[in-house]
Records
---
Amino acid sequence: MKTGFRQSMAWLHTWTGLLLGWLLFAIFLTGTIAYFRSEVTYWMRPELHGQRPAEDPAALALKRLAELAPEASSWSITLPDPRSPVLSVSWSKPGEAAGRRGGPVTVLDSGSGEILHPRETAGGEFLYRFHYELYGLPRELARWIVGIATMAMFIAILSGVITHKKIFKEFFTFRPGKGQRSWLDMHNMTAVLALPYHIMITFSGLVLFVATLMPFVIERGPARGPAPPQEVVEPPPPRPLPVLTPLAPLMAQAEATWDWMPVGRIQIGKLDTAAPEIVLVPLRQSVVTVQSGSGSNGVERLRFDGLSGALLDETGRPGASAVAKINMALGALHRARFADTGLRWLFFIAGLAGTVMVGTGLVLWVSKRAAKHAKAAVKPVGLCLVDRLNIGSIAGLCLACAGYFWASRLLPAEAATASLGRAELEIAAFFGIWAAAMLHGFLRPPARAWTAQLGLTAALLLLMPVLNAVTGPSNLALALWRGDMVLASVDLMALISGLAAGYAAWHSRSKAARIAPPRRPATVPGE
């Protein structure tokens, strides 16, 4: 420990950032990609591409449900939206306990109503879950690990602000080609660029983990006993479907109530009774306030009489305490549930800044100590270990993410093994590539390993639009022409990320050339 307050904060900043830095990099990178997990999942299922949505997809879904499940007790419709242009339906049979969205999901062509059979994929949901639950570990243990890493990140941010007296001046300073100085400038720039975001995302993450990290201060309800055995209910005899009220006026009324937030989901229940009901749920939260509702006045859903269309009630969370409302608001902020496309991109850019901040901090630790031991015959074991772990944890994880996209398209649509489904095979490919990259970082000289892994990442990302065109019915040009920005945005972001990875690979190659030992000139026989 160093003497003096700022020196102590610098020591704390360095070691909290290093000890959990590799995990924090993985949390930041996968969490940042997960801001667009719906778009990622859509890209990974080419069977859904190229649809031309009908003018009234709700009416189309209602018509198809009447054909597919005329004897169901409840129907559920998930409407296409700007992030996922997919129309899906589900239903529950009489006597079944209806889940939140009914039974198994059936995907429909949003233009014709034809049943589609998209491939099974882990999609963006895997990256989202890995971001806070890792993978393959018991859920509670994983949450403890990520919660502790989040606390370390929060401490590193606060100690970093205290350490740098001229932090905002340093934000406007970048000196390229200066080695260690350049890494420090990049670290400072990305830290200050999104400092409010970094504080918000770590603090809200801690709040989300409070039940794990502080279990004894959380008031829990009484323990639930075993569920009573369900009685077998005989299905009722066939009955005529009730004539439901048109959905369009109800949706217009709901959107006006929610400050013009679109309807995201339609639930139609009690179809096996004389009093069916229609419940409308908004697409997303429209604001982040202590109301924590999905629209004005905290109204989360509207319930209508299914025959007359009369409004029965508005459901919100009026009974929630102020603490619960603040907790829900912080959760909405952390997950960006309220964000439209533009604001979601701002969150994404801030997340990338956090990812670069963590990565440059890890590289800076090695750069500082490598300069200190430059003339030593043997470098410290700890320095060599961190240097090698940086390669697999930073470049290797980027390579694994790019390979994950490729695996989703290259695996056959019906791929499966005796123990693994297709989604699990995609995840296995992700971890297999990552493990190979970690091993490669120990087998090759560091500069060459950085170059190889970043170069391969760049190639995979730059070729993703080609992969999309070859393995699916659409391509980047066609998606732009049709206005399918969900598909086009993934391809475009892959191109931008590929260029960045390519530049980093070129920079690593130049460094490898500078530090390579000079070749001895060939001798001519007889000299």
Note: Residues 375-515 form one domain.
---
Amino acid sequence: MTFLASDGATAANQVTTNRAIRTAWLLLGIALNNQFSLGGEPLPVIMDWTHPTPSAIDFTPYIDRPAGKGGHLKVRGARFVDATGKRVRFWGVNIALGATFPDKAIAPVLADDLARMGINIVRFHHLDVNWGGSLLKDDTSTTQEFDADRLDRLDFFINELKQRGIYIDFGLNVMRFYKPDDSVRDHEILGMGKAAVYFNPRLIELQQAYATQLLTHKNPYTNLEYRDEPALAIVEVLNENSIIEAWWTGRLVGRDDKGGDTWSPLPVSYAEELTTLFNDWLPTVCTPEELNGFRAEQKVADGAPIPRLANNQFWSVSRERFFVEARFLMYIESQFFKKMIRFLKEELGVKSLTVGSADHDDWITGYPHQTGLSLFDVLDGHGYWEHPEIGAKTKSKNSPMVNDPLDSTVVQFARSAMQGKPFTISEVNHPFPHEFACEGYPVLTAYALLQDWDGINWFDWEYGRLRPAGVGVQPYGWFDVSNDPVKLACLVSSALMWHRGDVKSARATFSRSLSSEQIAETLLMNNGQQRPYFMPGFPKSLALRQRSNWVIGPSTTTEFPPEVDNTDLRSDTRQLRWRHQLNAGMRQNGLVTINTPRTQAAIGFVSSAPVELGHLSLKLNNQFASIMLISIEDQPIPEAPRLLLTLGSKSTNTGFAWEADQHTVANWGTGPSLVEPIVGQLTLTGLAPESIYKVVPATPLAQPLETPSAPPEALTVNNAGELVLHLDPEPYVAYLLLKQ
């Protein structure tokens, strides 16, 4: 890179990257005809977790240490607050399976890694699986014993996180497959027991025993039981589990013909148990005449049990018959949730905030399930942009989210936020293989700030430095964050934007009000056309313009805000803009821009239209990118002594290839990562030309690299007196601009 020196002279530093090596990687990257469609010469970028230089960003002003200092978090005014009343907003990752139990030599540096990226919460996921490393012992015939060594490593790791200001989120029932001596009926075909855990006494008993075993365990490194641990911010009862969803998807009709897995239907014996509960409940809400009418409708004898409905019968019975079963399933969920809240809070004395489960299926209505979830302290959502189909072969729709704002993760999550409750997103990602993943972090972060949401936990960290030797050349998995240099760079920049609240919350808020009758009515809209709000006439674009949430109350069906031109959506703060269908033809070229005093960004098809923000304009060769310019200090960009420039682009595995359809994976590839370089010009407007900047390549974690490694680019001054940064093809995803 060429620097504009303080005396006006230029000092060139040549790249140390060997061009022959780069060419070799290029040949590997294009060996197959249907490779990832990188726009330029793909360059290898290895995530080096041993790099010792501190990050240029200091997150300590935004994260108090230790986590829980002064006491447990509370909810006040639909926000998290600490013991002093200061708002706490979560920025986190999921850590799952074996990664939750790092060796004690690694745990402190792993905690350091997370802290330097602004992480202040870790959601420990899959602690109860029977494979891949979990709290449960492997060599027993029950799921009721913890592995002592793994528990000790988890305790140690949690203490390291706590000391760095990182809170904890525990999920209780995630992916537990029962064993022969658990005394669980039909365990071999029950699978995870989704839906059954709501009503079967033995499964409820086992859930409570697991919660007791974990939450009354004393961590020897903190000397606190987890139920008393102020760093344990959230306890989740269930993961992605709704009996109403199971009803809609046909999993409540008993079948014994499928081996138990995640989404197994209820075994016949459990289906019969649920039918008995249904018939015991019906006389408490229906008259004898109504019950006889239901029997006649379903052609069963007087006095006989009333069969429950299969999902192919929903439209062939009366509305009264449909809705009474919907009410029953909502009752089952709410009774279970009340029981678990009482058990956790009153019997165990857990002081952490609680979550019931996550609203996680935007293709069906979430309101009936959320009615029960609203009993808890916090509402939560899960969602992925185009979650891959994972089977014998991986398939991905692989389309850019910026081209589909009304179906974006922002709109999907906005359906879940409820008035008067903190709202968090505990799972989200643009899973690999996805060519446009660099859009995910900055777009969701910016709009989550507009919505004033309370937390994001990206899924998932995976192994990072926990990999054995050769960590830098590990291929991506579906959900990896720690191996992906582009996602990591976007994560760090977005973290600073998040913690500072660079995007203002919306000026206006609209609350959708649904009566109990409307909530049940939405179940009959599950045809995909009304997703995700299931309120005909409600403008899907509203969440991209102002705040949106919902509340149980009188109907607002005919009182919706008007729809607007969806090809150019602006937030009411005027800081966010989402444009798509920019070309006269059929091709969509979406573009999201962020324009605030401390953060300026362009995400999407950056070559499709002029990008001119307050202090940043682009002229790039790349078709698609995520460009973020952010002030490292709290000053506005022109006044900041240090700026971070993040260059997000397409990235993939070496040798990755699609089949001819461009959606089915033909070759997963290997490490290292190949990243499309950003090429072109960035004009920094409004920065005084006398401000002399040094441009330093940085790691994805914003750690400055040695200047001799800098690429041959130039920082010049144009005729208008503006600074122009010339970007050449180099293997860097971040740069620091430092005032001399």
Note: The first helix runs from residue 19 to 29.
